[in-house]
Design brief:
Blueprint (H helix, E strand, L loop, with lengths): L7 H9 L2 H11 L17 E5 H7 L5 H9 L4 H17 L7 E3 L6 E6 L4 E9 L4 E7 L3 E13 L3 E6 L2 E6 L5 E5 L2 E5 L7 E12 L5 E6 L11 E7 L5 E8 L3 E6 L38 E5 L17 H7 L3 H6 L9 H7 L3 H25 L8 E6 L2 E9 L2 H24 L1
Parallel strand pairs: 1-2
Antiparallel strand pairs: 3-4, 4-5, 5-6, 6-7, 6-8, 7-10, 8-9, 9-11, 10-11, 11-12, 12-13, 13-14, 14-15, 15-16, 17-18
Helix pairs in contact: 4-5, 8-9
């Protein structure tokens, strides 16, 4: 297959991996055909200063789509399903141009992200090491998105194939409507030879729980001469099985929807706002969405990727959002638990482009994790998940699920109050 044409920005991370590194990786993987790649130690030169659980957080960037779904549900349930479906697809676009590998999370590793301006908070915990599983929750006044993230990977010779075993549940808080969907396949090509590139392909089904309303989407597998690369198409159907929206576009650029049957006219509560080009419209509400006329292809979602131009993040072609996720200062560090990804010594060393130290620290963390596992095995103890409860998914009893305890935010608030009290005492003593 001919390699798809890529921009220089897309190649920056791949070019970082020199021939010597690729040669050593080839020797490492030569006996690993068909093996789960998560069980293999990859050279740190292939990493970027994030972890896989940070990538899950990054995938929630376009959460304003869920806010819009919540706001339109009572007026147009089919339109609400469309916007939930666009959120599901948007999660793949955030890292579409990144081929560098995040660090594998340690068992019990956590990550939080709080967007106070837009009233959104995110938390994730690595609840299993083998197989690698993370459980997460994204919360706001309009919606709650819960997900367990599990991917089965396999090295196939010059590519890594990722099979999704994940499931998400979205709750719209105004109406209580719930949706669920699984993951989608992805393949990172040319790991050893050629220019690395990412392909997302396969089917994804977004269902409204308790109804027969559904949206089926298919991401086309890239063919010869880049044919079909990034393309997505599908249909949304109402409870009677009628096609309400025909969907097509590119999951890394823009997705359009064509209304097939007339829907209700939205009663809006204000004048629509305009958003500058190149800015992610996090403040967008249902007042700002277009009218979907029958037979007229209309943009539903546009991927706006703001690549960070600051060093060192531009080295890995990271987005500006990814840079923000890496940030912490002394005040924020006092609030974070020691399990937070930001505080990993190997990640911080790589962020300084100190590859030698990053490699040493990465090995130390992995050895400590193995040591702790041996201790548990000797004692006959199981790993205890701290912030989630393992159960089964109500609509799919055969599938594992993780319910959030909500104890993380309570503990965080206590740490924050303790820090603020200590800071006030310090200021008083200085006076």
């Amino acid at each position: 297959m001919e390699q798809p044409t890529q921009s220089k920005a897309e190649l920056s991370a791949e070019e970082l991996v020199d021939n010597e590194n690729r040669s050593s990786l080839a020797k490492l993987l030569s006996q690993a055909i068909g093996v789960d790649i998560t069980r293999i130690t990859i050279p740190v030169s292939y990493n970027e200063p994030t972890s896989f659980i940070m990538r899950v957080a990054e995938a929630t960037l376009h959460n304003y789509l869920l806010k819009i779904a919540d706001q339109v549900y009572e007026q147009d349930k089919d339109l609400a399903l469309l916007y939930v479906s666009m959120f599901a697809m948007s999660s793949f676009a955030v890292c579409a141009q990144r081929v560098s590998k995040p660090f594998n999370p340690l068992l019990g590793e956590t990550f939080e992200y709080v967007d106070e301006e837009h009233g959104v908070k995110f938390f994730i915990e690595q609840v299993s090491h083998h197989p690698p599983i993370a459980a997460a929750v994204l919360d706001s006044e309009h919606f709650k998105m819960e997900v367990f993230h599990e991917v089965k990977t396999k090295f196939t010779g010059n590519a890594v194939d990722a099979e999704p075993l994940s499931r998400a549940r979205v709750t719209l808080k105004t109406s209580g409507a719930q949706y669920t969907y699984g993951g989608i396949h992805s393949t990172c090509h040319c790991i050893l030879v050629g220019r690395m590139w990412l392909d997302v392909h396969g089917d994804i089904k977004i269902e409204e729980i308790g109804t027969t309303r559904v949206c089926n989407l298919t991401a086309t597998k890239c063919g010869w001469f880049s044919r079909g690369w990034h393309e997505v198409s599908g249909q949304a159907q109402d409870t009677d099985g009628n096609v309400t929206f025909q969907i097509e576009g590119k999951w890394n650029e823009v997705i359009n929807a064509t209304r097939k049957i007339a829907g209700p006219k939205l009663v809006r509560s204000g004048s629509p706002k305009t958003f500058p080009a190149g800015v992610i419209p996090l403040d967008k509400t249902f007042n700002d969405i277009p009218d979907f006329e029958v037979g007229v292809p209309t943009p539903v979602w546009e991927n706006i990727t703001i690549v960070c131009e600051e060093e060192p993040y531009c080295t890995w072609n990271m987005t500006d959002f990814a840079r923000k996720l890496c940030f912490f200062d002394d005040k924020y560090r006092a609030i974070l638990p020691p399990t937070d990804t930001r505080l990993r010594k190997d990640r911080m060393a790589l962020e300084e482009k100190d590859y030698a130290t990053a490699a040493v620290e990465k090995l130390a963390l992995e050895e400590e994790q193995r040591r702790q596992k041996r201790i548990r095995e000797v004692k006959g103890e199981e790993w205890e998940i701290k912030h989630f409860v393992k159960t089964t998914f109500p609509q799919y009893p055969e599938q594992v699920w993780y319910d959030f305890k909500d104890n993380y935010w309570q503990a965080r608030e206590e740490r924050k109050k303790a820090y603020e009290a200590e800071a006030e005492e310090f200021v008083f003593e200085e006076r």
